[in-house]
Fold:
Amino acid sequence: MSPTPQQDRPTLAELERGLPFADRHVGPRPGELARMLDALGVDSLDALADRALPGAIRDREPVGGSLPAPVGEAEMLAELQGLADRNTVNVPMIGLGYHGTRTPSAIRRNVLENPAWYTAYTPYQPEISQGRLEALLAFQTMVSDLTGLPVAGASLLDEATAAAEAMTLLRRAGRATSARFVVDADTLPQTVEVLRTRAAPLGIELEIADLSGGSLPDGEMFGVLLSYPGASGRVADPSELIAQAHERGALVAVAADLLALTLLTPPGELGADAAIGCTQRFGVPLGFGGPHAAYLSVGQRHARQLPGRLVGVSRDADGHYALRLALQTREQHIRREKATSNICTAQVLLAVMAACYAVYHGPDGLRSIAQRTHRMAAVLAAGLRAGGVEITHDAFFDTVLARVPGRADAVVAAAHAAGIALRRVSGDEVGVSTSEITTVAHLRTVWEAFGAGAPDAAALDSGTADALPAELARTSEYLTHPTFHEHRSETALMRWLRRLSDADLALDRTMIPLGSCTMKLNAAAEMEAVTWPQFSDLHPFAPESDTAGSRELIGQLESWLADLTGYAAVSLQPNAGSQGEFAGLLAIAAYHRSRGESERNVCLIPASAHGTNAASAIMAGMRVVVVGTDARGNVDLDDLRAKIDEHGPRLSALMITYPSTHGVYEAQVRDVCGAVHDAGGQVYVDGANLNALVGVARPGAFGGDVSHLNLHKTFCIPHGGGGPGVGPVAVAEHLVPFLPGRGEVGPVSAAPYGSPGVLPISWAYLRMMGLDGLRRATLTAVAAANYVATRLQEHYPVLYSGIDGSVAHECILDLRAITKETGVTVDDVAKRLIDHGIHAPTMSFPVAGTLMVEPTESEDLPEIERFVAAMISIRGEIDRVAAGEWPADDNPLRGAPHTAACLADDKWDHPYPRELAAYPTGGTPGVHDRKVWPPVRRIDGAHGDRNLVCSCPPPEAFA
Structure:
């Protein structure tokens, strides 16, 4: 037999490289892509790019020079391991709101590493989100119980931004006319800095005051923030300060440690109006600073002032208990510049983990962990005192502040050399914080570092009283709901979590074609390093010598993102897209101030923009002026020029999303940017739709001065049921000095690098894709959207397109005429898609009465065709309603979604058959084995808003 000719077989180097990762990430196989392109009338992705993208924005030469050639999964993980190995994980006893914790393996495996949880989207379709909603309701109940305040939200970004949200909530909710907000000097320093950043643009006068004497400063104020315990560890009764504030007409928020509240009287019982904090120590890894779920709880009268998301109890069409997001009028896409917050992404996955931690341990387990943590601190302090070290506070929970005049650096260095990280407070003071992972061996090491000898820990324990004030001992019960008692064995917990995930529809079971949200593949290889201890167990304020690997990863990622977007620099600090928007607008405002143009405060925003744009502009101290859009969905250039002429000297910025929120590559974008620049303004290009640009066009090259990016969209960090997100801000050279935390502009999140615990995901994605892979992904996403638009055009009009009839990476299907003719609404279509086992597209945004579809590059042709077939089937049912075969108020669409229970009921008095309700496409292959049974029928949101219940109801509610 003759050998195979060289030209007929791959080289050894090609075989060694294996299948490129891009071939795994991009869904359509070559033959499928060819069929899609043929339907579009083009023969290649390059030809599609020539047709769909305006030449004025396209990069004709490859960009992203700092991004290296792609590698395979094994090589990427080896490189990532090399970076991880450059980190040193010491025992974290630094404190400052971040503590060592143990993530139970059952939670790590069944939630954090489970795509059923981490690939889910925000529960805007509650009928197929009952699982994560139930978990979030447990989170709210946990927070409410522990803080003693009846209403808690479904999680915020971090403790510092939660404090900022509480500050603005108290201002809205109170009656005081003063602009002064008093902050306890014993507050976490990172919280104080974020408060400064948030307060300045809003005209809030921040005063940091020493309240240890028990008195508020003289004068009026609208609010007060107290810390319980304080950053120094001190525990003091805040009730007198709360009473003083109330006497002056001010409201009070208390920053509280949830674990400490298992032993201490909760803030609500002490008179506080709100409580804020972080749930990190409830089983959520440190992650070098995040992501972690923060909390904010309030009294009942302030419930409607809560920012972000609130899970509430309602009922479905059959009257059964059901959950949904409550008070949706607070959401930014509805209230826009009247929104009370720009919060969009939350920290849902981390909130779920924290709630599961409370379920896993129950009230007794949490109390035991708190007692262990406190006893370690009490014995630690006793040993230091025995060794001649002065302890600053007699009352504390987990943090001991020790005075060592002139020796702080030596003590910290000695502990570090022995593998323990302490906090240097000053040259004379050292802080030591204990946690659930602290051991007696750690105490001995700390005693030695202080030069306190080697006392007998057992003897100290037996002879040392607790260091918590007896008058603050908690007497009220908490976590009494059965949820926190019935799932204590691992078997029970595992089955509870499986039941919840089965009540959801995530990306592991179906495409989620949500326009503007980019629900694409979150590859397992990208996720793998998230749980590596060298990344997950790193304290955000660890010494720089311990964090070289993570800082190099962050630097590389910032450089790659800057090159890909055409900007000079990137900051990864913003820990959500909304915070990236805010940071970008702060940079613009600071730039104008530096040029003596503080009067520039008008922000132009197209009518089609995402609602967070307007809310962020208001938070940044700007005045929003809306610019109209034309008949094609583009920015109306005439209206833009008129608004520029009207506000010229006061023009600060234009915020524009590109491609537009309407899913169109606007051909005149350079003209838009040029008009703003000519008037002295800056251009903010919202990066929400960057998945249509990476590798083919760069916002910083076609007119943008600043953009935020969504790593949880374009760069593969999973949405996790509504978070975590990361929203880096990218700026042109002249705005680099105004990036957050670099001097001129303060930090926008608590940790120096925001949420670095999930940054290995985006690093891995870019490292494996390379520039060619990214370009291929972008154009495949554009091909998929155009294919959907082409296939559905005769059934549902596509509302907007470019001059050549192409859309970008998403398309808007217009149902308004259908609704007017038949009464069938976008809600009906969305709920009927559930019967098909498919998540609905984005409803009524950016245009009411429409569906915005974004298939992404990760879905293969059979899945896209499954969605297309479902939409065509639904159109057929709409036609039967229009023909009078079914009444407008009783048809398969209005009755959707259909549960197994409603179909099995003896009573069936609908004019359409059960079989059609259950299996809309009948015997179509693959229908029965892909069937999703929703746990509830259509939910009555209005009922829940009128009867607001935001914590776990009693078991009778399930009867």
In short: The two ends are 76 Å apart (CA to CA).
